[in-house]
Every structure is written in C-alpha cells, then in structure tokens.
UniProtKB/TrEMBL annotation:
GO terms for molecular function: metal ion binding; oxidoreductase activity. Keywords: Metal-binding, Oxidoreductase, Signal. InterPro entries: Di-copper_centre_dom_sf (IPR008922), Tyrosinase/Hemocyanin (IPR050316), Tyrosinase_Cu-bd (IPR002227). This is Tyrosinase copper-binding domain-containing protein. Pfam families: Tyrosinase. Residues 1-19 form the signal peptide. Residues 318-329 form the Tyrosinase copper-binding domain. It comes from Cladosporium halotolerans.
Amino acid sequence: MHFVSSLAGLAAVSGLALAQSPPLSDYSPEDIQSGAAFKDVSNTADGRMRDNINGRNQACTYDNAQVRQEFRAMPKEQRKSFTDAVTCLHHTPPQRMTDAERPNYPGVFTRYDEFVATHINYTTQIHMTADFLAWHRFFIHALEQDLRNLCGYTGYMPYWDWAADAAAPQDSEVFNGDEWSMGGNGEYVPNRSNTWLGTMQINLPPGTGGGCVQNGPFNDFVTNLGPVSSPYGDENVQGHFDHNRRCLTRDLNPAISSQYNSYKNVTDLILGEIYIEDFQQLMQGYGGHDNALGVHGGGHWLGGGPSQLEDFHSSPNDPVFFLHHGMIDRIWIIWQNLDINGRQNIIHGTSTLNNDPPSDPMQLSDMIPFGFVADDQVFGDLMDNFGGPYCYRYE
Ligand SMILES: *[C@@H]1O[C@H](CO)[C@@H](O)[C@H](O)[C@H]1NC(C)=O
Ligand SMILES: *[C@@H]1O[C@H](CO)[C@@H](O)[C@H](O)[C@H]1NC(C)=O
Ligand SMILES: *[C@@H]1O[C@H](CO)[C@@H](O)[C@H](O)[C@H]1NC(C)=O
C-alpha cells in the first residue's frame, strides 16, 4: 500500500515535469509533412487527457464522454443522418427570435439562420479576441444539441481533418457529392481571373468549382443571409441581416489549402506556439505576415470565392463551417492537453477584434453573448471539454 502510494506520488511529481509540450525538433521534416508527427502529438495529448480526467473523480470521464469523430470515420448511415438533421434544422422555424425582433432580421427564416445571424452579429467580438476559441466551441456544441433535440440526430458533431485533403480538397470523399458526403464542389465555372484579397495581401487564383453545389445532401440548400464582407464586393448585402436568397456555392481551392492547411502547418502551430496569444494569433493568421490566413482562415478560404464559407461574417451558412470548427476545437484541445496545468484556463486578449476599438482584457468571469443561439455563457465554463456544459472528446 505504502509502496503504491509513494509510486503514485513519484508519478505525480515526474508527471508535472513531463507534462510539457514536446518540441517541434522531436520530429523529422518528413514526419511533420506526412502527418505522422501530428498523429503522434494527438495521441500524446489524448493519453495525457485520459490520465488527467481519471484523476479528477467527476461524473464526466474519459470513458463515458461523447466521442466526436472525423466525418469519414463515421458510419455512412450516420453521416447521412447528420446531413439530414442539418437540412431539418434549416426547415425548422426560428426558436429564439421574438415577433418584436423579426423586422430587424429580414433574412432570418429558420433555426439554422439564427445561428448564422448570431455569428454575423458578433463577428468583430469573437475573432482576434480572447474568446475566439471558447465562443466557437460553444457555438458548434449548441448546433449539435439542436440537431439532437429538434431534429432527432443521435450522433455527435463530426469534424473535418482538412490536413488529410490539403493537397486536393476537390478530390476528398467529404466533397464527392454522394449521399454520404457533405455535398459536392460547386459546378465548374471556367475563365475566371484572380481576386485580390486586400486586407490579407493575397492574390487568390480561382479554384476548381465556382458555381452552385449540384449534388449530394445540400444540392438544393439555399442560404438567406450575407455575404457581408466578401471581397467579391458586388455580392455584399447592405444591412447585416438583409435577405439574400442564393444557392450554396463552393470553389474548392487547393492553392489555399496546400499553403495553409497541411499537416506541416497544423503541427508547426501546435508544437511551435507555447503561448496562448501566439497560438490563437497564428491559428487565425497574422495580417500581412506570410501566414496571412492561418489554419483557421485557410479552412474558410479553401471554400474559394465567392463561397459562403469564405465570408468572414456569414460563413456558418455552409454546414462545412461546423466541421471545420470541430477541427479547430480539436486542435485547441490537443494544445491544451499537451500541458494541461498551464493551458486549461489560459486566455489572452480583449473582446474587440485586434483590440480595435480598445476594450478591457477579458476575464474568465465575463459573460459571453450568444444572441439567438443560446443564453449568454460564463467564459470560464467553456474552457474544459469535460466540464461546464461539455462532456466530449475527439477521436
Ligand atoms: C476561355 O478563355 C479562352 C481564352 O481566352 C477562350 O478561348 C475560351 O473560349 C473561353 N471559354 C469560355 C467557356 O468562355
Ligand atoms: C504550410 O505548409 C506547406 C507545406 O506543407 C508550406 O509550403 C507552407 O509554407 C506552409 N505555410 C505556412 C504559412 O507556414
Ligand atoms: C445582436 O446583439 C445584440 C446586442 O448584444 C443583441 O441584443 C441581439 O439579440 C443580437 N442578435 C443576434 C441575432 O445575435
């Protein structure tokens, strides 16, 4: 008995010393490029997560937590039930918008639109802010809950590992357009010129689609809101919540994904950035830096232009948004768990985009607004995937 407890004590002490993120230099350039390093890092983080939660003695455990899977790892029937439930939510009436509010939101017709409108509403308070990661974690959780509670979905939120598709997203099974996919690419539109993305100083070549999604589960998906801030300027609506009925458009663009969403890019991010301010900044891209989009911006822009996925404000219009943000959330969880004591509750920044206009540093006691999605949440409740409203992990 004594022997066991002193061994445990030893493990705890050495655990503290060991529970630090491995350096990037532990891996060869080949392993970083191929994804072997990322796989090893996510396994390491998962093992540490299991050890940590099992030491906590709480109702939510590693073994009873909900498991979110990569879209392609889900059984085909479950993929279809997910996309069916998304379509259902798109045909479900608004749940929180009151009749008095309705005139202010001419583009909101469905429960799904309430999610899009909320993201539009808070765009400049939830990006390049302290709560970017926590806000989006809760946002996708709330959609998952609605799919289950309003539309009979029995699974959990899938994620999309875009790094596996970085070389050619247009060839991904996720977008092959069959009934078990997330819908196809947009119809190919030839002879388009490059687009200058001014704020990011990028000249974006056209991608592999460009028109309406024609096959798969979302072939007749119409979106009602935005774009608000697309560089394809003549597309933009005047008022943030104006009605703009249009088809779901995609232009899957390997020029973006190969540059921003490779296994190298995500491994560099997770192992290369040890401070939250650098980690969350690099993930979203440093303006003007050669990583102008980061893996987060890359996952949006690989949708190409003009696609719903690329619009800063109204991007949740494309259901792929939620799978992309599942991946972003997974990356945060991996990063947190590589050094859980140092990183579980670490935040940095204010509540305004790039602190413009200036605002106070956010605190974990702050309330975070969720508009038409849900009641406002305490920031500190959203940091732990095994605490607050959550009990889930990624596989
Ligand atoms: C595309 O551009 C080329 C060269 O400018 C032209 O020959 C061709 O007819 C165009 N195709 C279409 C579909 O507009
Ligand atoms: C992303 O990774 C690719 C190689 O996979 C590399 O060429 C590119 O420079 C990286 N992008 C950034 C912004 O680091
Ligand atoms: C937009 O923000 C305002 C102010 O926080 C809030 O009253 C309103 O409910 C929000 N609307 C949506 C759709 O999030």
